[in-house]
Design goal:
Blueprint (H helix, E strand, L loop, with lengths): L3 E2 L9 E3 L22 H5 L4 H8 L4 E3 L2 H7 L7 E3 L1 H7 L4 E6 L10 H13 L4 E6 L3 H12 L3 E7 H6 L1 H9 L3 E5 L5 H9 L7 H14 L3 E3 L6 H20 L6 E5 L4 H15 L5 E7 L4 H4 L1 E6 L8 E6 L21 H8 L4 E5 L1 H15 L5 H20 L4 E6 L7 H8 L10 H8 L7
Parallel strand pairs: 5-15, 6-7, 6-9, 7-8, 10-11, 10-15, 11-14
Antiparallel strand pairs: 1-4, 2-3, 4-5, 12-13
Bound molecules: pyridoxal-5'-phosphate.
């Protein structure tokens, strides 16, 4: 049995897969903050032309520029593993495979899009990128990519994470980025929040407002987002394309795919290339896994909403908990966003994708089991995909089904050991976000469409 399945460098994909070409309905249009149709001009204040084109493209295959492939080769193609030891521990007849995106320099899948975005901005003559980061994974990825393409990077980091994850901050600084705890007093959005609450711990929505404001106000500066948008999911499809080739090498095809879902980028990345087969009639379950404390797909509504707290971004139709949703301080920082990718949302709404919400403790239990059997310590976000896979593998043990399961190991947990510490000390709790708090936040949705 092959436990580690590698692709040759020459077999690294040459094109990204654009799911829009295979969707039964065209994507819902993006609207300007006031509800009118969005103009390309509004987007070009913060994004380069190539990215805007990709955001609205319906072309099935989009070439990956050579300069981008050249950088991706530093760690790609990433390995696919058969998790035999986990299978044995679970006494399951199911076969469990996982794609290891933790092997990138930043430790997650996020550099796959950071590199592409930095490249297109450089091509356009942009000098600086402004962005936000929650747990620090995206900030690190963009800092790395900016460094490789000689762009300055400024990161607004959610204040609680800035305090809790000093080494993520040091990594960004090592790769040459400037990092500020958000909310700051250097943007209008930040000052507005601080007036209401001087001790605001910050949120991804607030940090996005600050970064977008800076990018919109300076012609040499653009904005880069690490998830949610169509072009981000597009850049991540290299994960699923590779995984498909790797499974082919061992004569396998998955019955189900699991990935953690924050804004949907690593889920779209691993699942979308298989959606083309599903659209053609193949049976495969594509499952987005989210925390019960931020249950966007499983408890949110499908409506137009802002991507940020202050209402500066365009409106997209998506599953949302409301743009002013304040997520509880759970440890899967990357899964705390109020909204979700428009593409994932639309396909989920049409019943073509599945979603499951899992409580925090079960995710850490799965992460511990995975660490002890396979050796790799997963990011708390990735633990969600592992927990969902473990649930299905245990079900297979009861029914005797020999299903083939695939999950995405979106990142390692080396900078999340304080979360593991709290788990081992018994200090972690399950938290179901209360329905009335969700209702309160949803009552502030913009009235459009
Ligand atoms: C950011 C992050 C996620 C969640 O983001 P998506 O856009 O939903 O993929 C998941 N896992 C890790 C390790 C992350 O850094």
């Amino acid at each position: 049995m092959k436990t580690k399945i590698l692709l040759k460098e020459a077999d690294m994909p040459t094109h990204w897969y654009n799911i829009v070409a295979d969707m039964p309905n065209p994507p819902a249009p993006i609207l300007a903050p006031d509800g009118s149709p969005v103009t390309p001009d509004a987007l070009s204040a913060i994004f380069p032309d190539a990215i805007i084109e990709q955001e609205v493209s319906a072309q099935r295959w989009i070439p990956i520029p050579d300069e981008v492939r050249e950088v991706l080769r530093l760690w790609r193609p990433s390995p696919l593993y058969r998790a035999e030891r986990l299978e044995m521990a679970l006494k399951t007849p199911a076969k469990i495979y996982f794609k290891n995106e933790a092997v990138s320099p930043a430790g997650s899948h996020k550099p796959n899009t950071a590199v592409a975005q930095a490249y297109y901005n450089k091509l356009q003559g942009i000098k600086r990128l402004a962005t936000e980061t929650g747990a620090g994974q995206w900030g690190c990825s963009l800092a790395l990519a900016g460094q490789l393409f000689d762009l300055e990077v400024r990161v607004y980091m959610v204040k609680v994470s800035y305090q809790q994850k000093p080494y993520r901050r040091s990594m960004m600084q090592t790769w040459g980025a400037e990092v500020f705890p958000s909310p700051t007093d250097i943007t209008q959005s930040g000052r507005h929040i601080l007036q209401q609450d001087a001790d605001s711990p910050g949120s991804l929505g607030i940090a996005i407002s600050e970064a977008v404001e800076e990018a919109a106000g300076r012609s040499d500066t653009n904005y880069a987002l690490g998830s949610v948008l169509n072009h981000v999911l597009l850049h991540q499809t290299i994960i699923g394309e590779e995984a498909k080739k790797q499974l082919e090498l061992v004569g396998e095809y998955p019955d189900a795919i699991y990935a953690p879902c924050g804004g949907g980028s690593n889920f779209g990345g691993i699942a979308f290339p298989f959606f083309a087969d599903k659209a053609a009639g193949k049976e495969i379950d594509l499952v987005a896994v989210e925390p019960t404390s931020c249950p966007t797909l499983t408890k949110g509504v499908y409506a137009y909403d802002y991507g940020d707290t202050e209402g500066l971004t365009p409106l997209t139709k998506m599953y949302t908990l409301g743009h002013d949703f304040m997520p509880p301080g759970i440890h899967a920082g990357g899964l705390r966003y109020h909204g979700d990718s428009a593409l994932v949302s639309q396909l989920y709404n049409e019943g073509l994708l599945s979603a499951v919400a899992i409580p925090q403790l079960e995710t850490f239990e799965a992460g511990e089991l995975f660490s002890k059997t396979q050796g790799i310590i997963p990011a708390p976000e990735s633990c969600h995909a592992i927990a969902a896979t473990v649930r299905e593998a245990k079900r297979c043990a009861e029914t005797g089904e020999a299903k083939t399961l695939l999950f995405n190991l979106s990142g390692h947990g080396h900078f999340d050991m304080s979360s593991y510490d709290r788990y081992f000390k018994g200090e972690l709790e399950d938290f179901d976000y209360p329905d009335d708090a969700i209702q309160a936040s949803l009552s502030h949705l913009p009235k459009v469409g």
